[in-house]
Design goal:
With about 450 residues, this protein is an alpha+beta fold. Helices cover about 45% and strands about 20% of the residues. It has 3 domains: about 210 residues, D-Maltodextrin-Binding Protein, domain 2 (3-Layer(aba) Sandwich), CATH 3.40.190.290; about 45 residues; about 150 residues, Alpha-Beta Plaits, CATH 3.30.70. Bound molecules: guanosine-5'-triphosphate.
Length: about 450
Amino acid sequence: QSLTYCIDPNWAPYEYIEAEQHKGISAYYLKRISELTNLQLTFLKTDSWQESLSAIENGHCDITPLLNYSESRAKTISFSKPYFYAPNVIFAHYQHQLVAGLSKVSDESIGVVKGYRLVDYLKGHYPEADLVQVNSELDGLTRVNNQKLDLFVSSFYAANYLIHQHNLTNMRIVGIAEVKDQLRFGVRHAHKDLIPRLNASIEKLSHEDHHKAFIMLEPVKVITQTNYSLAWEIAAIGSLLLVILASRHYYSLKQRKALARKNSALERLHRALEKKNKQLEELAVKDHLTQLHNRSYLSGKVAECINSKKRYKTECCLLLIDIDDFKQFNDSYGHQIGDDVLVTLARTLELCARETDFTARWGGEEFVIICPETNLHDALHLANRFREALATAEHACADPITCSIGIAELGYDDSQESWFTSADNALYRAKGSGKDKVSIASD
Ligand SMILES: Nc1nc2c(ncn2[C@@H]2O[C@H](COP(=O)(O)OP(=O)(O)OP(=O)(O)O)[C@@H](O)[C@H]2O)c(=O)[nH]1
């Protein structure tokens, strides 16, 4: 005989659907009973217990393997004798005090699963109770856990299983409901002739059969042993990070020190370079032998004098000095003595000139004094003073040093070239008139 059966799909661990398959202890009992009765049972999948009850009522489902007796169900269903017994308990928030039984509940809401026999029971025995019908055991337990419902009455094993599975830790059992589950087969009235066969098979179930089913009520084991491997991994990664950070810090310190050393070396180099540059600048404007300024330096000063003349009409004189018969010093005493004579003249020049004058070696044995803010009279005085000082200056050979001097006052329209030409002409005249003379350009 081939029959269909249906279950409560949300009543783990009693019965539930997993991967489209009927699971739980009712699956186990159903298998045993169909073996013992030789019944062919085909599973009719439903989405809820309500849907399963409706399927029995409208004839789509013939048998359901695990339900309690109730008068209302008895209208459409014939029942076998019970074969599995379980207590019902009352759940509440973990801070709720113990409840001595359902009869002691007064103002609190009591949850039960819609369609369960408990609904009829509570309505019948406690009509005043604030009954809340929830969709499933899990729905009721979750509401209590979240303090959305005061109490929830449920099968102990089913609730125990769900609490573990869903980690509902805000709740506890606070009392025992007087009703117990006495679970049995339910058969559509049309097949009530099956009841004796089912009862005979139930009688044949052994103690071991029941024990195997009972074991299936055990919730999924919670692993209480601490898994240290993650801690070790974290510690290892942490240590590695520490080592990396420490070595980075060490290398960055090392690099900073090396950088500081390089920076101070660079600073030293920079200072040395500045010094060298200064020396080079001085070399560029100084005569190496006499240490007087050279022609290129003087050209700048001459330009300043010309500008000053044009702007302020200030007086300015130029003395062009040439050592007389200098060639003879070289020829008679050698080049070194010639150099000494040049240096002697340079020192004498510096002694005689004022601080505001500019002295320079113009080239060879020719020297220049530019005297700003100086008229011809004073320039002549300076020239003669210089000649006298030179004549008495100590130097390396016995011959006296004399020089001829050409003086030119800067004219308003003079350029450097015309000014020096005037001085040169005057010098030429001084040489021509017997040397050791001073000649003025305007003469
Ligand atoms: N020792 C030395 N001699 C120099 C230097 N520069 C130029 N002379 C020499 O100076 C001499 C100049 O000779 P001249 O131009 O004939 O002039 P001078 O002998 O002074 O004759 P007058 O100008 O007519 O008095 C040359 O022999 C040059 O070689 C120098 O730096 N050192």
